[in-house]
Amino acid sequence: MKTRDESGMALLTTIMVMLLMSGLMVGFFAAVIADQRANGIDRDQTQAYAAAHAGLEKLTSDLATKFETDFNPSAAEINALATHAPAIPGFTYIAPGGGSGYTITFTTDANGNPAPISTTGTPITSGAYQGFTGIVTQYTITSTARSTGNAEVRLRRILETVAVPVFQFGVFGDTDLSFFAGPDFDFGGRIQTNGNLYLAEGDGNALALEDKTTAALDVIRTQLSNGYLTSTNYTGTVNVAKAPYVATNPATYRALARNEGSVVGGPGTAANELPLMNPGWTSLSIGSYKSYIRNGKTGGKRLDLPLVSQGAKPIDLIRRPVVAEDISNPLVYTQRFYTMASIRILLSDTAAEITSLPGVTATAPVPLDQTVVTPAQYGPVSATKPPLAEAPGPLPTAMAFTAASVAGDTTLTVSNITANFPAQLLSVGGNAVTCTGRDATHFYGCGAALPSESATGVPVTGNVTLGGVV
Fold first, then answer.
1. How far apart, in whole angstroms, are the C-alpha atoms of residue 110 and residue 459?
2. How far is CA 164 from CA 62, 331, 416, in A?
3. Average pLDDT, the chain
4. Which stretches within 70-84 are classed as H helix?
5. Shortest CA distance to 118 belongs to which of 139, 137, 104?
6. Coil, strand or helix: which one is 318?
7. What is the pLDDT of residues 164-219, one digit of tens each?
8. How far is CA 61 from CA 84, 160, 219, 466, in A?
9. What is the C-alpha to C-alpha distance for residues 451 and 432, in angstroms, rounded to an integer?
10. Rounded (5°) CA angle 367-371-373
């Protein structure tokens, strides 16, 4: 039987195998390219995330730095921070649809400046100052980074600044605070000190801290602030609240022993933790006292009045400003009670010490020595306007008058009246006369017994003698 020639099958098989291998190679290359593209997109996205995160952290840092020196920045100052985006090659900060992707937004007041989220204050619900009402201002920072490959990541963070009005504290100390009463002593307000807190009580008596207490540094029980040891005459009980304090309910307080301060001795000594004290200070502060008493290690923080960051001292809050402070240091000037008062009563030795102050009108101050009394100031002394109160200092015993009014007139003209001679009981020609006011050359509102002019019209001369002060 004659066989067929199958030489063509080998060629066909070879072609089919080559087609199959080509298909496999195309699929393999397609998978590799797709994987590379995915990796590239993922890399772009990862790098875009890192760039967006960098922008977010820079905005946060710039805001924090700003608040360290200015507690109440203007909208222009805040917006200026958003013009300094980080420079990262291959990335720009552009929002979807255009516009800046590096922004800070906030609620504004009537002047366009950052405004608190509540005009009545916002309760602080956590932390060492829980329970206070704070002035909370929110800032929303947004960072949108876009790569040259069009990968885009947007990150957003909400920051809050919280101002705690100082009047909410029972006592607020910028330096060390001490409690070392002899007799029983209860203190019912919140306590904050930016220094150390010294707690002691006289022998046989009790001190009670009835509200939350925070110290930026340490709580010291072994000595007073002058180094005097509490083991001598200060071995009394120091009760510290661990819940709303009730003196008759021991469940609301616990006695803090002499060896249970945050340090073993005075300032700078070792922390009072295990194995030195059992339980250690952290366990006592956070656990036993439920954070009613804290030091810097357990959550107590330094709180500064805003003007302190401008180089002023806390007492400057109630002092009058210095000359031109509204221009040279407006951040301190606007925080003084002087600028917030609707009525100012200023007493000075000279008029210039008042008129030179910022915010004072050009109207001359009222002199308290009664040398000048005009209707524009206090007004003439009368039955309804008694003489201004004053401390006249040393008084003369007599002065000369060179002219006297006619009989029945109540004004006495004198020549050498002195600034420290007030309206008073006088002796004129041996007769007692009471006058109610005076200026530089006259006594006004004088009673009877003034000398009369002579028959020839020549003024009568004589002496006015001090008879007594009214």
1. 69
2. 22, 18, 60
3. 81
4. 75-81
5. 137
6. coil
7. 887 889 999 989 999 999 999 999 999 999 999 999 999 999 999 999 999 999 99
8. 12, 13, 32, 74
9. 12
10. 70
CA distances from 377 to 68, 352, 411, 420 (A): 45, 17, 21, 19
Structure tokens at 80: 């200026």
Most confident among 45-49, 172-176, 330-334 (mean pLDDT): 172-176
- Residue range 214-265, pLDDT digits in tens: 999 999 999 999 999 999 999 999 999 999 999 999 999 999 999 999 999 9
Structure token pair of residue 380: 């003439």
Please give the Cα distance from 468 to 190 (Å, whole number): 54
Phi/psi of residue 401, nearest 5 degrees: -115, 140
DSSP state of 108: B
Maximum separation of any 2 CA atoms in the chain, in Å: 187
Strand pairing report for 177-179 and 197-199: parallel
Q: Is 370 helix (H, G, I), strand (E, B) or coil?
A: coil
Peptide bond into 275 cis (omega under 30): yes
CA distance linking residue 431 with residue 436, whole number of Å = 16
Q: 217: which DSSP letter?
A: S
- 8 A C-beta contact, residue 283 and residue 291: no
First vs last C-alpha separation in the chain: 163
